[in-house]
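Give me the fold.
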Amino acid sequence: MGKYLIKCTLVAALGGLLFGFDTAVISGTEQTLKVLYINDYRTLSEFFGTINFWHGLAIASALIGTIIGAMRFGKQADSYGRRKLLITIGVLYFISAIGSALAWDLSSFVIFRFIGGLGVGGASVISPMYIAEISPAKYRGRLVAITQFNIVLGILLAFISNYLIASFDLGPDTWRWMFGVEALPALIFFALLFTIPRSPRWLLLKGRVVEAKKVLTWVGTDSGHIENEIVAIQNTLKIDERSKSETILKRKYWKPLFLAISIAAFNQLSGINAVMYFAPRIFGMSGFGESAALLGSVGIGLVNLAVTMFAISLIDRFGRKKLMLIGTIGYLISLGIIAVTFYTYDADFKLVNELQQGLSNNPILVSALESSATGGSIIMWSLFLFVAAHAFGQGTVIWVFISEIFPNQVRGKGVSVASSTIWIMAALISWTFPMFAAESGGNIFTFYWISMLLQLFWVLFAMPETKGISLENMEKQLNLNNEK
């Protein structure tokens, strides 16, 4: 594996790191934003919904942009090229970081977060696409996995950044720094993109054979023969062109479509996005102070990163189904404990929060501290177990699984449907969490537990094992050849 190939991969994968950072940075600011824009929320609530309804929508605005970004950038990839779109994504990240930091009202904040969401959605499609197209097949799996690793690393860095910025005691503008700091890596990403080549596949799509040969000389080929590689890619492009007219809605594709949509929906029904977006609030609901809540979020990021690395090393040995089964059991244990703990200690948590916020100085509140500490500790360790279960199962398996189960002729369309499902569900989960959590933490985590019980039955009785099966033989494994 050449140094130039590794460099190009790392640069493109920075899009994934910014993806993770942009997704998680909101967690350290959302409570401040609710207080800051409370008058705007009250005005909106006069027309429709509650304050928590509008707050959830504001927080989910980036995810709404992500849905659109994933769909639009994927469609534009062949027209404008992968590198040019990555450059555009870098610009969107930068604009979003600066704009969110300087937002002057709720509307401007939502607009700039939406712009960042467009970048996240685009990066989720274009970064792995570019890496796959410059990588020789024998390295492709490991190199594309760097994007997933960077997403998780970006989430951890966002949690660490929020904690460090909060520790500087920058006053009422602390939340602005949390958003604004993303501008620096976005600028670095933008600049480095001019040092990497265009995708050889895209160059051949546009008939620029000489340039494609030059790029393949730099990044390497499977056979070591540039001319053979060129012919192989051109033949694939012809097949792809013919497959554009193939519809994903044919009956023979219903099974992989059902599997992809199911795993994508369950991915978010676990509540993982709610935990990543609202981790400090969940710790706060458990009796933790602001600093401890932000530090707890860093712990979540560390667990997520460590277990993801471990699971990636096992996925081709253990198989997708076994990882999903272990992860689902972990979900059920952790979510069940969290829900029961909230039901048991909810009154104490609320009393301690009042004491911490200075809303009451009633001596009776002090008696709740010891009980709250016990409940908070249980929830903290259960959240760590929950994130570990996600990283070991869904977090590692989903992108591999949905890219394997579709036949070649509709793989792009199938993965697009699954990706859209993930982002739509992520937006809904993030939007609704503030409304349900305001009533009781136990209720919302019970809902997630029930969803994961359904996932357990899905894994046991519907999910096929795809380990060790070639993409060409997947149709036989799923009996698609017998369908019409």
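The mean pLDDT is 85.
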